[in-house]
Structures are given as C-alpha cells and as structure tokens.
Design goal:
The complex is a heterodimer of chains A (about 240) and B (about 250). Chain A has a domain at about 105-165. In chain A, about 35% of the residues lie in helices and about 25% in strands. Chain A has helices at about 50-55, 80-90, 100-105, 110-120, 125-135, 140-145, 150-165, 180-200, 210-215, 235-240; strands at about 10-20, 20-30, 35-40, 65-70, 75, 95, 170-175, 200-205, 220-225, 225-230. Chain A has a six-stranded mixed sheet, sandwiched between helices. Chain A has a four-stranded antiparallel sheet with strand order 2-1-4-5, covered by helices on one side. In chain A, a hairpin with a 2-residue loop joins strand 1 (about 10-20) and strand 2. The longest helix of chain A has 18 residues, at about 180-200. Chain B is an alpha/beta fold and about 250 residues long. Classes of the chains: A alpha/beta (about 240), B alpha/beta (about 250). The interface of A and B includes residues 214 and 235 of A.
C-alpha cells in the first residue's frame, strides 16, 4: 500500500555510513510501504543495527559520517536539524530494542514510565489503553508493577506500549525477541502482525533468526557486509541463508 | 577411566530465604534428579524463571544447595561453565594467551605450552596467541571463551544460554566444533536454554524444567515426537512454528 502522496512511507536512497575511515554501510537503497513488516536479516556484524540506528538518526556525527537520503513521510531525515528531529523521532519513528530490562527504568512503576513517554510528546492518553493495545490483559496489575516483577514477555509488551504512545507509522524493532522463550516469541510475532492490521503500523524488524522472520515479515531484505544483497518473500530469501 | 556416571544428582533442592520477615522462602529447585555419562550431552530446557541457571550454578559450585546430593566422579576443576554472551566478557586489553592462561595463573598451575595446545583444540592458529581480544571476530571470540574453559581440562562443560544471540551460521560452526571436541576428549555437555530448537541437534537427552522441577525427560527424539507435559507441548509447538521447514 502506498501513502496518499504516492510515495512509500520510508524511502532510503544510497545511504552509507563511515566510521573512522571504515565503511560500515554502503549504497543502501530500499523502501518500505505503510502497513508492512519488512524483515532485515544478516549475520552478526553485517550492519543491521548500524542501519537501524542510522534510520532513527541515533548515530552521533562525528564520529559517524552518514551520506545519502532517508525520506520519511515526505521529509529527508538526513537534512533535518536536531530540533526538528527531536519532534519527529519517537513521534513518528519509534524504536524497540533487544533487552527491555535495559530500556525500562528499574525503580519506576510501569504507570510512571508510560506517562513519561506520553508527557514527552504532550499527549493525554490512558496508559491502560496502550497496554491493552500491546496485548496485556490485566493493565491494572501491570501498571502498578516494577519491571522486575514482570515476566520477560510482559516487559517487552510494556516497551511496545510505550512505542505506541504516539501512534507511530513506523516502528524499528532491533532483535526484539532474543531474550524470550520460543512460545513467547510466537505470541509477540502475532502481536506485530495484529498491530500492522489494526493500526496500519509498519515495522522494520531486525533479526538473525530465519524462523522469526518467516512467521512475522511480509518481505525480507538481506544485508551482507554493509550492503543489501537480496530482497523478496521471507521463505525464498531465508532458504538461501541456511 | 571408571564406568560410573560422571555426574549423579539426587534430590537437589535450593531455596532462597526472603529478606523480609514473614514472607515465604522462594523455592528455586525442587528434588532434581539427574544422571550424566561421560561423553554424553544433556539438554535442560524450560521457560524463563524455571530454575535453569540456578541448577547450573549449583553444579558449578557457585551456589550452595539447600539439600540433596551432587556426586561428580571426576577431577578438580572438572566442571566448567560457559556463560551467556561469553564473547562479550573477554577482557579487550588481554591477548589470547593471557585470556586462556588466566585460569591457570589463578590456580597456580603449570602454563608451558598449554595456551597454544588449547587454541589448537578450538581451531585457532598459534599465531593468534599474541592478538588482542578485540581483534578477533565474533566466532573467534566464542572459540576463545571455550578455550578458556578447556584449559583446565574439564570433563563436563555447562553452557548456560551460551549460544543465544548467535546467528545461525555461527551456531552451526560452534556446534560442529563442540561435537568434534566431544568425540576427541570424551567431554560431557550440559546445554541449558529456553530454546528447544537450540539444543535438539546436540543433546541425546532432554529434561524439561518448570518452576524448579523436572516435569518431563527423555531421549530427544521421543520427547519431540510425543511431548506429554503441557509445558513440553508448548515448547515443542513453538519450536516447530519457528523452524523454517515446519518440522522439528
């Protein structure tokens, strides 16, 4: 599905990233339509995470040098000033990382942390409603809990609820399932697809697990040594990986 | 070499006392029975919080069991443990030689020639000895971490989620190396993971842990073909969904 302007939601053109004279990513071009889960696979060190950070403009320059264009909802993020970005980042592109224990504050209750995310963007929403969107059935117990009192799956759902606070059209998820056991992985993969269908959210899902990508992604892009080498249906691409 | 099992665990219990008065003790392990033969691989699989790591820590001597018996029919330092993300825990300022020799230095054991021999076991060349940890690739660092455990000539290696987060190609590489080492050195392995898919290729036998108890155990093939306990069924079902060809 293409957005109303006829452009894809995210259009990356010839993106490259250098660090201390070493080329980490080169000539990356791809696009991501709205309401699509695009998987990003590749071995450790292939540049998956660097790409995610470059897209969310989280690579500090210096020392990183980022070239190219990242068109998102009609703007080139690479040309934007930091203050404009502040508004856009989080509100428009949300990020979910590997270990929710690292991204959640251990000494604040879940309610406080979700309210923080809402306050940062001047939003008035019911934290319980966000948790329900993330598939947490008993919001009251979760809202009153500290992160350590929750299971791994519940914690990751809390970070998803935070990410959903501003209805972002795009969520970048970097290995979001690694800390979870297999049954929870299957459940959360279902949640991603559910959010895509109900809220029209797009995902860039980074994972090195062929199984995770096969059950979650609509299409998969394969990165190898900093370049995109393949794009297509998950099972097609992943069969060659093994 | 004796024919007795390398490791026998009987009625192993571990509970943690609560720091607050009046609240109940937390039972982490309940009546665990295990037997492991030399040269065999046992998988311990269970959801997060089921007691897997506590079991590993009791066996490795990091924790004192509350009650029960652990009989290990082997040498001193015969049980070595490889932790989660072992590659990330190497000191970046150390050379490969210093990393591998450190356990010998700590135990005041003879060092001569051992670092090079151990690197050879894990498939690293002697030229790697003087390189620093940060100069190695992810796979090589994984091998270094295993070499560090091997240098004390253990008979049982416990891997506690050591392969989580490795990409499939690397997992396969390290798995092949471990199988080869097992044959040559008659090592016993205990593979601990929340992911059935990760251990099924290597373990001949799997025990499923839930809430501190073993709820089901058996030869890997039987367990996967006919899981009985609900937890096992859930784990097998999820592993099947996540395997590309749909079969475990």
């Amino acid at each position: 599905m293409v957005s109303m302007s006829g452009r894809p939601l995210l259009d990356v053109r010839d993106l490259s990233v250098d660090l201390a004279g070493r080329r980490l990513l080169s000539g990356i071009s791809f696009h991501l339509e709205s309401r699509m889960i695009l998987g990003l696979c590749g071995n450790s060190g292939s540049g998956k995470t660097t790409l995610a950070l470059a897209l969310s403009k989280l690579l500090p320059s210096p020392p990183y040098k980022v070239h190219g264009e990242v068109w998102f909802a009609g703007h080139d993020l690479c040309k934007m000033r930091e203050r404009e970005l502040e508004v856009r980042r989080g509100a428009r592109i949300a990020c979910i990382f590997q270990d929710p224990l690292l991204s959640l504050n251990p000494v604040l209750r879940v309610r406080t942390q979700i309210k923080e995310a809402l306050r940062a963007h001047n939003l008035r929403r019911d934290p319980g409603e966000l948790l329900a969107l993330a598939g947490l059935d008993c919001p009251d117990r979760i809202l009153g809990a500290y992160p350590h009192q929750l299971s791994g799956g519940e914690r990751q759902r809390v970070t998803i609820a935070q990410a959903l606070a501003c209805d972002p059209p795009l969520i970048i998820a970097d290995e979001p399932f690694t800390a979870l056991d297999a049954p929870r992985v299957v459940e959360l993969a279902g949640l991603f697809r559910d959010l895509r269908d109900r809220l029209n959210t797009s995902f860039l899902l980074i994972s090195h697990s062929p199984g995770v990508l096969a059950i979650t992604a609509d299409e998969v892009v394969r990165v190898h040594e900093g370049q995109i080498v393949d794009r297509g249906a998950p099972r097609e691409i992943l069969r060659h990986v093994r | 070499m004796s024919d007795r099992p390398l490791l026998v665990v009987r009625n192993l219990c571990k509970s943690y006392r609560s720091r607050w008065r009046g609240s109940a003790a937390k039972v982490a392990l309940r009546d665990i029975d295990l037997t492991l033969e030399r040269g065999a691989t046992l998988g311990i699989v269970g959801p997060s919080g089921s007691g897997k790591s506590t079991l590993a820590r009791c066996l490795a001597g990091f924790e004192q069991p509350t009650s029960g018996e652990i009989r290990f029919d082997g040498r001193a330092f015969g049980i070595q443990m490889i932790l989660q993300q072992p590659a990330a825990s190497l000191n970046p300022r150390f050379t490969a030689r210093e990393i591998v020799e450190e356990p010998l230095v700590i135990q005041r054991l003879e060092r001569a020639g051992k670092a090079a021999r151990t690197l050879d076991l894990v498939g690293l060349p002697a030229t790697a000895l003087e390189r620093h940890a940060h100069q190695f690739s992810g796979g090589e660092r994984q091998r270094l971490a295993i070499a560090r455990a091997l240098v004390l000539e253990p008979e049982l290696l416990i891997f506690d989620e050591s392969f989580a987060g490795l990409d499939p190609a690397l997992q396969e590489q390290i798995g092949g190396m471990l199988r080869d080492l097992q044959q040559r050195l008659r090592l016993a392995y205990m593979l601990i993971s929340h992911d059935l898919g990760l251990v099924q290729d290597m373990a001949q036998e799997i025990a499923i842990l839930q809430n501190g108890s073993i709820v089901e155990r058996g030869p890997t093939r039987d367990l996967l073909a006919a899981p009985e306990h609900p937890v096992t069924r859930e784990l097998v079902g999820a592993a099947r969904v996540l395997s590309l060809d749909g079969a475990v």
